[in-house]
Structure formats: C-alpha cells, structure tokens
Amino acid sequence: QVQLQESGPGQVKPSQTLSLTCTVSGDSITNRNVAWNWIRRPPGKGLEWMGIIAYDGSTYYNPSLKSRTSISRDTSKNQFSLQLSSVTPEDTAVYYCNAQWVWSYWGQGTQVTVSS
User: Of the four listed, 16, 42, 76, 95, which is most buried by Cβ atoms within 10 Å?
Assistant: First the structure.
C-alpha cells in the first residue's frame, strides 16, 4: 500500500510562494507506472488538479496555474514537492498529493491559508 504525507506551512502571506512536500512510502516515485499529482480543494469548491510529475521527472501542469506552478522531486528522499508563486487568498485550499495508477492513493491533505 502506498502512503503519502503532505507537509509545509499552514499559512502563507499574499504574493509569497507556497511550498509543500509529499513524502511517499510503499512505492518509489521512479515507478514508471505511477503518476504523482498535486490536487487542491478550495473552500466550497471541487477538486482542482494542479500538476503531475512522472517517473522520469517530467512535469505537466494545469494550464490555468502553469505560470505559477512548479513541481520537483528528490528521489533520494522519495519526495516530490509543489511550489506555487504569487499566491492570493484565492489559493487558500486543502492541498493533496496523490499517486495514481490502476489504484489511487491520497495523502490526508494539508490546509493552506493565504492571509496577511
């Protein structure tokens, strides 16, 4: 079973960069079968896919967020990370990391509030 755990600050100020890390156990982030995703849920809204990092480190982003989003990884720690720049209060959400293949595993989610 794959386990994922998000970590990072719970509050970020407007115009700053939000940084989160997902620590993975039970599988390798270099598994070519698995897509490693960041997804968020703003309050009162549905899930929004933010981007993916594949087994080879290639990345793909939601076009609506692409200019502000970066996903990277540290294979030595089996972690992948999200950076979202120039945040506004509209970026307040619960942020999830996700592993997707024929199955889907989710982290528990972490609340990030953008506020001064």
Answer: 95
What helix, strand, coil percent values describe the chain, rounded to 5?
5, 50, 45
**CA 97, 79, 52 angle in degrees (round to 5)?**
45
Q: What is the pLDDT of residues 25-39, one digit of tens each?
A: 999 999 999 999 999
Tell me phi and psi for residue 34, to 5 degrees: -110, 135
DSSP structure class, residue 108:
-
Distance CA 12, CA 77 (A): 25
CA distance linking residue 80 with residue 66, whole number of Å: 17
DSSP letter (8 states) at residue 47: -
